[in-house]
Amino acid sequence: MKINNICCIGAGYVGGPTMSIIAQKNPDINVHVVDMNAEKIAAWNSKDLDNLPVYEPGLSKVVKEARGRNLFFSTEVNIYIEKADMIFISVNTPTKTSGEGKGYAADLKYVEACAKQIAEVSKTDKIIVEKSTVPVRTSEKIKQILRSNNSNVDFQILSNPEFLAEGTAMRDLEIPDRVLIGGDKTIKGEKAIESLVKIYSSWVPKENILTTNLWSSELSKLTANAFLAQRISSINSLSELCEETGADIEEVSKAIGMDSRIGSSFLKTSVGFGGSCFQKDILNLVYISRSLGLEKVADYWEQVLLINNHQRNRFSKKIVNCIKENNLKPRVLILGWAFKKNTNDTRESAAIYVANNLLNNNISIQIYDPKVKEEQIIFDLLNINPHFEKSLVNFAQEPFLKISDYSVIAIMTEWDEFINYDWKTVYTKIKKPAYIFDGRNILNCEVIKKIGFNYLGLGRK
Ligand code: NAD
Ligand code: UGA
Question: Ligand 2 in contact with 336 (CB < 6 A)?
């Protein structure tokens, strides 16, 4: 089936960049990205390309090229569902906050609402693509909703999970390690798979496009994230062991990573992984395993989250203890709020948890992040504690304006500009004795110590 019109429901961190690339690489296909959030759609349509709702290096260039040609953003969800031959569901799948599976299972209410809406609106046959990360066998549920609400048209369901990482989304989309497409092993199912393969083959080599059955595709996405997160928790657990033994985590990480069977990616110790997906996807995996009576499997994966929590807490405790033991003014300058560099996304950022721990100890904080807006930071703090002490929180447009009031700096995000600061000049202005808690191990500790700072990294003496 030749695809002429694509509709993507959900103009978020995945829908926006993914559809921009599909449109750029397939100028003969009209791609309509729809969302019920009018403000977000207005921002995607904004003339000011520096203010797109998603910050990703390289994104504005692609949007500039394709928007208005064959890439469109709209709130007219029904119109573009109806027009489309292929519909991507790219909506959020957060952890459930109530009902069965609360705190663990993925909340599929947005995915299910999309399926219902598609069924109600559709008058012609359509291929429905699950782009959102979902529990294994969700495609079965989608099929059921579609078919029970509309028996007049044929719906083929595909699973095409997204593996992009924020901050490098455009590169990941342009040169993906693999594109995964799951579908039914029926004649119609195979044809649907072929249609999607054709779209990706406009720029992805055929050997990097992997086709599987629906459930393998769904489960592979969840478990790929679990594997990545598990590596971070492994190295973070070792950072504590290093602190007790005198080993240096950077040296250990390098030595482990040089084993070609292990590899060096995702072995960077940190104050804990954040982002919207690792935690929710592992919770989901734990829930699925427990539901199937696989207690040991569930416990194994849950431990990845317990270590992540522990890492954030022990980093906070180090700062609190340092302030108490050295009788310092209870003030900390927090550098970085995003969950990683090169994104404005703050979901589950370790900075939120550390800031909350500091506030709970009556420590005032000043926060600086080059890409995160003040409103977002307030939203995050309210989300974790609706009664947080507002008088303890300040924001900085420029990180070191009030540095003479501070003697403690905590680095929470690995933004390049933090590495490149003129730390010698900062030292001349900061209150002494001065402490840097490097939650990302991004600074050269020898150089920083030579300048005069007390340097406290993770897993380093
Ligand atoms: P997001 O919150 O940024 O975007 C989701 C969008 O869907 C929102 O703008 C919301 O308004 C819209 N939406 C929800 N229900 C809708 C409906 N019924 N009609 C119209 N619009 C609707 O989420 P995201 O980060 O893009 O993630 C989407 C999915 O992709 C999730 O399942 C996530 O796990 C997965 N994923 C995310 C990433 C990532 O880096 N963020 C990477 C890979 C996979
Ligand atoms: C992650 C996966 O890398 C993507 O493949 C996946 O598509 C995506 O989740 C998703 O499903 O949402 P993302 O969360 O955007 O992508 O970013 P990562 O680069 O994976 O980083 C996640 C967190 O781990 C960040 O807080 C990062 O700082 C931290 N991290 C990463 C470490 O602490 N150490 C590392 O070595 C690597």
Answer: no
Nearest CA to ligand 1 atom 27: 92
Q: Tens digits of per-residue pLDDT, 388-406? A: 999 999 998 899 988 999 9
pLDDT band with cut points at 50, 70 and 90 for residue 461: confident
Specify the ligand 2 atom closest to the Cα of 345: 15
Check pocket membership of 266 for ligand 2, CB cut-off 6 A: yes
CB-CB neighbours of 319 under 10 Å: 23
Ligand 1 mutation target, pool 109, 111, 277, most atoms within 8 A of CB: 277
Task: Give mean pLDDT, residues 245-252.
Answer: 96
Alpha helix stretches (DSSP H) within 84-183 = 109-121, 138-149, 169-174
Residues 68, 23: contact at Cβ < 8 Å? no
Q: Dump pLDDT digits (tens) for 78-125.
A: 999 999 999 999 999 999 999 999 999 999 999 999 999 999 999 999
Backbone angles phi, psi at 438, to 5 degrees: -95, 95
Check pocket membership of 344 for ligand 1, CB cut-off 6 A.
no
pTM: 0.95
Statement: residue 450 has pLDDT above 80? yes
**For residue 318, how far is its CA from the centre of ligand 1 (angstroms)?**
36
| CA dihedral for 10, 11, 12, 16, sign (positive or negative) | positive
Please provide the average confidence, as pLDDT, over all residues in the chain.
Answer: 97
Q: Does ligand 1 lie within 6 Å of residue 93's CB atom?
A: yes
Please report the atom of ligand 1 found closest to the CA of residue 40: 9
Tell me, letter by letter, the H, E, C secondary structure of 242-294: HHHHCCCHHHHHHHHHCCCCCCCCCCCCCCCCCCCCHHHHHHHHHHHHHHCCC
Catalytic residue list: 277
Classify strands 126-130 and 86-89 as parallel, antiparallel or unpaired: parallel
DSSP assignment, residue 373?
A: -
